[in-house]
Write a structure and sequence with these properties.
Elements lengths: L2 E6 L4 H8 L5 E7 L19 E4 L5 H7 L5 E4 L14 H19 L3 E7 L25 H20 L2 E7 L1 E2 L8 H4 E2 L1 H13 L5 E6 L11 H5 L50
Parallel strand pairs: 1-2, 1-4, 2-3, 4-5, 5-6, 6-9, 7-8
The chain binds D-galactaro-1,5-lactone (15L).
Length: 281
């Protein structure tokens, strides 16, 4: 029997990737602040049978509760996905308040599995490891107000897992774009196809409690461990390295001062600058 996956923020880039490569055996209930349009032709098998499209603003608790009715699992992509000044005031109400509403609605509707689209920026102030790989469960060290909201989403996931028994997977996503566009992304890239593999695997795997997992492709230059993904049956197939020859700066020596995994997000303010938790400048 087909199961129903509620997807929030489905009109965004990642929602489009998923629409083109839907998880096997799932019907998608696609939602966003305006009804998500069809993703159009692209790589992948295309739209899942029975796909529904609805308007949903996750800051509205009643609408969120209604959207969770009859759902077997949730992929929460909805939220503000950057740290720019224009949308900064929405970060806490949408990313934190919206996630709280969603988890509350999931608990009320008896939804067992929730995948939260987190971000590497929740841990972005960790230095790039000089050797070895950062584990999936490295502690939060946000690099911006955006990263703080992603860390708060992780804390909410942990609470709803402990308190209500929801199986929560925290997808610590790197850089999920069609292709890597900077030298950093040779390490952090998550290909569209691997993103869909990650969703499919984390919907299927046995999970108890709240599990963080890196959302990254099989990049030669990755900094993040593959262990957590492997344990959940996520086996990425793409490697950003194939794009390196065409990428300016790809062969530059790594910064000897040791940069942070969040890249440009954690630029430090000059001494005496008032603190606004802005992150990038
Ligand atoms: C993110 O979390 C952002 O949503 C995305 O726009 C990129 O900045 C990405 O991280 C990244 O680190 O490349």
């Amino acid at each position: 029997m087909r199961r129903t996956l509620l997807v929030t923020g489905a009109a965004g880039l990642l929602g489009g990737f998923l629409q083109r490569r839907p998880p096997e055996g799932w019907t998608l209930r696609l939602t966003d602040v305006t009804v998500p349009p069809a993703a159009g032709a692209g790589r992948g098998p295309g739209e899942a049978p029975g796909t529904e499209r609805r308007e949903l603003d996750v800051t509205d608790p009643a609408a969120t509760a209604a959207a969770c009715e009859g759902v077997d699992a949730i992929l929460h992509l909805g939220g503000v996905s950057n740290n720019v000044a224009a949308t900064r005031d929405l970060l806490i109400p949408v990313n934190v308040g919206g996630t709280r509403n969603l988890l509350d609605a999931a608990a009320g509707a008896g939804v067992r599995r929730v995948l939260l689209a987190g971000s590497n920026h929740a841990v972005g102030f960790h230095p790039r490891p000089p050797a070895g790989l950062l584990p999936d469960d490295v502690e939060c060290r946000p690099d911006s107000l955006y990263g703080v909201t992603k860390a708060a989403m992780e804390a909410l996931g942990g609470f709803y897992a402990d308190r209500y028994g929801i199986e929560v997977v925290l997808l610590r996503i790197g850089s999920c774009f069609e292709r890597p566009t900077s030298p950093r992304m040779l390490s952090t890239w998550l290909s569209p196809a691997d993103f869909c593999r990650l969703v499919e695997a984390t919907l299927r795997a046995p999970v108890t409690g709240c599990r963080p997992v890196w959302g990254v492709s099989a990049n030669t230059r990755r900094w993040w461990s593959a262990e957590g993904g492997d344990a959940l049956g996520y086996h990425p197939r793409d490697d950003a390295e194939v794009f390196a020859p065409a990428l300016a700066g790809a062969d530059a020596a790594p910064d000897p001062r040791g940069e942070t995994v969040g890249g440009s997000f954690p630029a430090a303010p000059a001494a005496g600058t008032p603190c606004t938790a802005e992150g990038p400048r």
